[in-house]
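Predict structure. Input: Heavy-metal-associated domain-containing protein, 65 residues.
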Amino acid sequence: MGQQITVTGMSCGGCEQSVEEALEGVEGVESASADRAAETATVEGDADADDLVAAVEDAGYEASA
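Output follows.
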C-alpha cells in the first residue's frame, strides 16, 4: 500500500536522501522516495502515517500526512 506525505524544507539531493533514510527506518516501510521539487515523499508499505510524519520531523524537515 502506498502513501504520500508532504515534506517541506528539502533543498538538495542530500535532503532527499536524509528524508528517504528517515522514512525507511520506520517499521512497515518497504521503500521510500522523496522529491524535493514536488515537496513530497512516497512510501510503500503499511507504516502508520503519524510515524512517517514523526520520522521526517525528527530528521529536521516539516511534514504532514
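The longest strand covers residues 2-8.
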